Amino acid sequence: MSWRSSGNFRPSNPRPRRGGGSSGGAGGSGGGRNGAPLIDPVLQVLIAITVLLGFIGLIVAISFSGTGGQTTQAQPTPPPAASVPTAPPAAVATEAPAAPAATEAPAATEAPAATEAPAATEAPAATTPPAAAPGIPTEPFGSALASGTGQQVTLESATGDELVFAQDELRVADGIVTLTFVNRADVVPHNWVLIAGDATRAAEINSLAEAQNRRLRNALGSVPPPDTPDVLVATQMLNPGEEVTVTFEVPGPGTYQFICTYPGHYVGGMQGVLVVE
Ligand SMILES: [Cu+2]
Questions:
Q1: Is 193 exposed, middle or buried (0-12, 13-18, 19+ CB in 10 A)?
Q2: Where is each Blue (type 1) copper domain found (predicted)?
């Protein structure tokens, strides 16, 4: 509105100047005083406005360019944020190895379990049986053994594989006896064990002998352990064809059981009695 009003004034102004020139200097001077102040302020306002607009435009342009740079700079930072996802996998990887390590550590502690070491110590113990092999008697023993020479008696096993003594009853006088036992078998070993007791005690002693066999893992060791009560005489195990002579003195008149303690022979019938009169 102000522009149009000022525009209307511009054409109106020259008319007064032309008319003023023709009228005189006083009219001209009066017209100059009124025209110059009217034009200059308008131009100054227009110039000021244009300058301000220019400054504002520059400021706006700079501000946009600055913000644009900032936005572009902010965008590069997000990529690092995008790299963050890589961190989570790393954390997972660290957790996974940690768990296996924990499980492996306990396993290692269990592996050294002292149970294996004791087993190793027991294995050497198993080797001791060979050392105990000397425990297999090679000579007669028993509480009734005596020195010198007494009544001569000979006892033989049955020939072949029959599990019996050739004589199931021997008779001797009270006193010292010198007995020779001969293994007439073809294959199996035999021995002779004289017992102070009845058939039940004989069976018990036979069981002790067979327990020795299992402990020594050697049938030749199937003999009652030394110092077994009620064992008056026990000979070592004789292979076929071998014989042994033993001298002994029984406690007194009576009937005494004698058996072979080779595994299964006593139960098979290899037993008899010694009658002391
Ligand atoms: Cu026998």
A1: buried
A2: 153-277
| Domain range 137-276, CATH architecture | Sandwich (2.60)
Distance from chain centroid for Cα 37? 109
Does the pLDDT value for residue 84 go beyond 70? Answer: no
155: CA distance to ligand 1 center in Å? 13
200 burial level (CB within 10 Å; 0-12, 13-18, 19+): exposed
Alpha-carbon span 171 to 273, nearest angstrom: 9
- Per-residue pLDDT of 138-164, as tens digits, reads 999 999 999 999 999 999 999 988 999
Q: How far is the CA of 275 from the centre of ligand 1 (A)?
A: 21
Q: 262 alpha carbon to ligand 1 midpoint, in Å?
A: 5
| Three-state DSSP state, 274 | strand
User: 275: pLDDT confidence band, cut at 50, 70 and 90?
Assistant: very high
- Residue 179: name the closest of 188, 167, 189 by CA: 167
User: pLDDT (tens digit, 9 = 90+) per residue, 56-82?
Assistant: 555 545 554 544 434 334 344 344 444
The DSSP code sequence of 25-87 is HHHHHHHHHHHHHHHHHHHHHHHHHHHHHHHHHHHHHHHHHHHHHHHHHHTTSHHHHHHGGGH
